[in-house]
Amino acid sequence: MRHLMKDKEHLFRMAALFVGGIVLFVIVRAVMLPKDFGKLGHYRPGALEDNAKRVPVFAGKPACLECHTDMIERQKGSKHAAINCEACHWALSKHAADPSVKPVRPDAKAICLVCHTANVAKPKKFPQIDPKTHMEGGPCNECHQPHHPEKGPEKPAVQEAKK
Amino acid sequence: MSETKSNRREFLATGTQLVLLTGAAAVAWEHVMAGSPEKAPNYKTTEHWWAMTIDIEKCIGCGNCVRACKTENDVKEEFFRTWVERYHVEGTEMERPEVDSPNGGFDGFREKYKAGENSKNFFVPKLCNHCSHSPCTQVCPVGATFESPDGVVLADKTYCVGCRYCVQACPYGCRYIDPRTETVDKCSLCYHRITKGLTTACCETCPTGTRKLGDLKNPADPIHEFLQSHKVQVLKPQMATGSKLYYNGLDGSVR
Fold this sequence. Notes:
The complex is a heterodimer of chains A (163) and B (255).
Chain A: H1 2-32, H2 46-52, H3 61-67, H4 70-75, H5 85-89, H6 93-97, H7 108-116, H8 156-162
Chain B: H1 2-13, H2 15-34, E1 50-55, H3 64-73, E2 82-90, E3 98-100, E4 119-127, H4 135-138, E5 145-147, E6 153-155, H5 165-169, E7 176-178, E8 183-185, H6 191-194, H7 201-205, E9 211-215, H8 223-229, E10 232-233, E11 245-248
Parallel strand pairs in B: 1-11
Antiparallel strand pairs in B: 1-9, 2-3, 2-4, 5-6, 7-8, 10-11
C-alpha cells in the first residue's frame, strides 16, 4: 500500500502545482483586468475614449467658413468650390481656434501642380496640363484665381497698393 | 475684378464683426480642441455604423490623403495607415497587373507609362477596411483590438503586447508595429474626428470626392444614394471579412 502511494506521489504534487497555478492566474487576472472589461465585447471600453480623445489637426471647411464668409461668394460657380480649404492650405485647426496664429500663404504654383500635372493614370475627365508647355509654365495665379481658377487673376496685395 | 475688390473691402470693413465672430467660433471650437468626447455629448456609439466609399473613377493620385493622414495621426515616416497604389494593366494581363506605390503615394506619382499603349492605368487608394467580421480582431490574445459598437476597428495601445498576430491576420496589409511604442498601429477612421462631427483627415483633404465617409445608420446620409446608384465592390469578398470599404469602378486586377 505504502509502495503504491509512493509511486503516485509525483502525480499529486503535479496536480497541486496545476491547481495552484490556476488559482494564481485567476487572482492575478481579477486584479489586473479593469472592472468594465468585456462590457461591450472582448476589450476595454476605455479604449474607445482613448481613441476619441485626441485633438483634430484639420479643422474642416465649416470652421473656415464661419469666419471667411466672403469665400462662399468668391467661389460661387467655380469647380474649386467643392474642394475643402485645407486640401490646399493644409492643417489649420490652430489658426481656426486662434486667428492670431497666422497661416503661411501657400505657393500657388507648387500647389496647383500637385493636382493638375498630367498623368496617364488620372481619369481622362480631370483637367490636366503639362507644366512645361501650358502657357510656357508661367505662374499659375497670374492667369487663374486659386479660389476660382476659371476666372482671371485676383491680387489683393496689388489692389491694396493701388488704393 | 471690381467684384472681388468690394468683397475685399467688405472683408476689412467687417473687421469688428470678425473679432466678435472670432470669439463665437472660438467657443464653438473649444470642445473640439479640448478633445474630450464627453464634451461632445451628442455622440452615441450605438447610433452610428461607419463605412467609406471610394470612387476609383475619380482618384487623381494627388497623395493628399496620404499626407493628411500622417499630419493628423502622427504616422511614422516609413509606415502608412492609408496609401495609394498605381495599377498598370496591359492588354489581357488581368492576372498580372504592374502595381507601384512610391513612398505610398506621399510625393505623388511621376509619369511612368505612356498613353495609348493598349493598357489601362488607374489609382487605387487603400486603408483599413473596417471589417465587421474582422480576422485581425479575432486573433488578438489580449483583447487589444476590436470592432467598436459604431463599426470601427480600433487598437488599444495600452493593452497591446506587440505579438504581431493581427498584423499577419489582416488580409489587406493595413496594420504595422509602431517602432516607437512596439505596439500595433492602424487606421482608426480618425475616431477622434468622427466622434466630434468631423470627417476623416483623408476625406477632408480629398479634392475630387473620391473618398467619402458615410454613416450607414443615418438614413439621411448620401452614402445610401451612392451605394444604390453605383455598382460597388469590396476587396477580397471571398474572405467574407464584412469589409465596409465600398469601391466603385474596382478593376478585376486589383488585389
